Amino acid sequence: MIIFISIILIVVGYFLGVKLVDDENTIGFYLCLGLILAGWYLVSVHYEEQPKAIDVYRNKTTLQITYRDGIPVDSVVIFKENPLIKK
User: Fold this and answer.
1) Could you give the CA distance from residue 66 to residue 72 in angstroms, rounded to a whole number?
2) 63 and 39 within one domain
3) 19-43 tens-digit pLDDT
């Protein structure tokens, strides 16, 4: 959903910006530039939060094993909490 909103912000900002440059409306152009930058920011933040396979090798994950009667029955990769990122 956030990707869809970001793409709409970028596309609308671009087409409005092109129209406003033709009309020599500089304030509107900078508002459209702001829309484009907001869309780009949302896309970059969304992709930054997505887990990647390389994270296992970068020691960002741990393995959680579920046991029943001493026998391992399931395992899940859990991402470690990053103290620098506040949620």
Assistant:
1) 6
2) no
3) 666 666 667 777 777 777 777 787 7
Domain that holds residue 37: 1-50
In a domain, residue 6? The reply is yes
What is the residue-wise DSSP string for 39-68?
A: HHHHHHHHHHHS--GGGGTTT-EEEEEEEE
pLDDT for res 65: 92
Which letter does DSSP use for residue 77 in this model?
Answer: E
**For the chain, what is the domain count?**
2
Q: How far apart are CA 63 and CA 39, in angstroms?
A: 35
Residues 41, 46, 50, 55, Cα dihedral to 10°:
20
Q: Given this model, what pLDDT does residue 74 score?
A: 93
